[in-house]
Amino acid sequence: MTAQWRRGQKHPHCHVIHVNPLCPLCVTVEREMQPNAAYNQNGIGIDVTGIFSISGEGRRRRVTTCCALLIGLCTLLARQTLQAQGGSGRESATDTANGTGLTNAMDASRPIVLVLPFDNQTDPASIMPVAAATGTGEPQPGIQQDSAHSGGPTVSQASELVNLDWIREAAPEILDRRLNAVGYLPLTREDRLYALDHLGLPETFLPSRATAMRLAETLDAEYIVIGSFAAEGTHLKLTARLIDVTRLRMSGELVESGDISQLLPLLNSLAWQLARKLEPNLDVSRQTFVAASAGVHLDAFEQYIRGITERNADERLRHLKRATTLSPDLTEAWFALGKEEFEQQDYEDAAAAFAKTPPGDPSALESDFYRGLSLIYSGNYQHAGDAFATIARVLPLPEVVNNEGVSVSRRGQDGSALYRQAEASDPTDEDYHFNLAVSLHRNGDKAGAKRELEQALKLRATDNEARALLTNWSGTETVPDATEGNAVEPLERIKRNFNGAAFRQAALMLDQVEAARIAALPGDQRATQLNRDAREKLNHGLLLEAEREYRAALAADSHNAEAHAGMAEVEERAGDSADAREQAQASLAEQLNLDADLVLTRLDLAADQIAAARADVGQALKLDSSNRTARELRKAIEARAEAMRQKSLDPPAPPASGLPNASAEKAPNQR
């Protein structure tokens, strides 16, 4: 299975064809032949499960990892593979059998999940206006009040008062993010819309189970989530089922219900149930799932969903701006707002919106790409180059490197090296040859410029700009030369389109490479690396992702004090005080540390245990007397102690005017 092979040869078992000898992952694999393994030119097995592209070939779907897109990542993988195997460049059969090779390290494939919009099964006659349902005039999500109406609505009136259809798209939005956070690969809304269009169906189409299976086949999904919701008054019931596409099995109903104001916690809890169905041994708590949306206002989330589903561009912009105003920390809304402003050519505002995406977010790479484009179009070439360089350090795809080169060239510097890198990654793209030609000509290499321009024309003979430029440079016509200052110099071409599927494929492979590298480390070093990753995620509010990393660190080293302290902070943020205290105490039992002391201080302060809180913060300040958080907690403790002392000195408040004293009023049979 790991036999050596050369360029152009088919692997006998999985029909792999190697395209470029420089690229260890440039392969095409027929899924039906060998779904979970490909082999690079060194004979090293690589798990490609979940790396997919939509081909529209029915059952003969192809999994493609393209050299043109992944050359930089492939170089990284090859180097790390050699390092992990001591420079051998080949995985032995013994290593594979013992589970120590690259294939085993990367074997944690991510199942592909398609979450469909939920069916709205609400009976309009069952919905009551807010005033009748709650006795208040406070607005509820999706419910618009009619000041002229004060009683229960008729069916026709209810249709005007209530519009809960936005929940159809809210459900897959939340479920996708939660399942992605715990290791699954949910297909995006864009993927789903593409598949619907491919099947000739409108984007608002609610598929039957048979059509859902066709969508799953089109998208190579292994699982489908179907669901519905129904509201009665302000009570909401969510129902979901999980379909195993491979085994053709459907789970029983998974149900969550509660007040409509608790929609996000309900969806988070439903996501936990689905994750447990997918992985019964899932070690992430329900509380962490529920707390994942703790900082998001429901009305802001509603505006965000309306913003991404509205057909009118101005209405989309209005809803998204409203969402970011109501909830400034709602990353998804900022990202969608940035894309909308980018499409409307409001590049400065788009760049500011994209900058709100934190580094650990699933959309961070795409956000940085569009932020770089926005900065280029608004003339901020220095920051544009920085944005593309940030992506290139993680994922050096050719379009990213090319745009970094454009940013460099627009500042009057030589970007030739970057264009060469992009061209080497994808020699079939004529734009990279054109850009290198322009850059070489500007920097005095006329012969090299002509060669690159000729190559661009070989790839696309209809490129009139390149043909006119070559004619000019060849001197066959009396066309003013751009370098003489009397003609407009050609500009390098910007790669505007973001290939989301390619980026996700590459990012997934990068995650697998990193997982393989970490898996090869000794337990204590592995825990240290996982702790570092978890802390970064926790700092950005990604509780689910942080908990997974900390639990993995504890699995690698159960006595790791930092991992226990991190878990204590995760449990504290999730609202599980008992588990947070237990983890903090376990951390301090292993080693005195500041983070665990601070968690205990906050827990004791919240419980009004002033003496214990003083002891905790005192210990923290012994470890770091200048720590700002500990100093602020000490002030808060003393303020709470003073407030409690004043309260104990104040006499009890007299009964309210006109009301009898409850203690003096006795029942007749007690007199």
Automatic annotation (TrEMBL):
Residues 570-582 have a biased composition (Basic and acidic residues). SUPFAM superfamilies: TPR-like (SSF48452). InterPro entries: TPR-like_helical_dom_sf, TPR_rpt. Residues 94-103, 142-155 have a biased composition (Polar residues). Residues 85-104, 131-155, 562-584, 640-671 are annotated as: Disordered. SMART domains: TPR. This is Tetratricopeptide repeat protein. It comes from mine drainage metagenome.
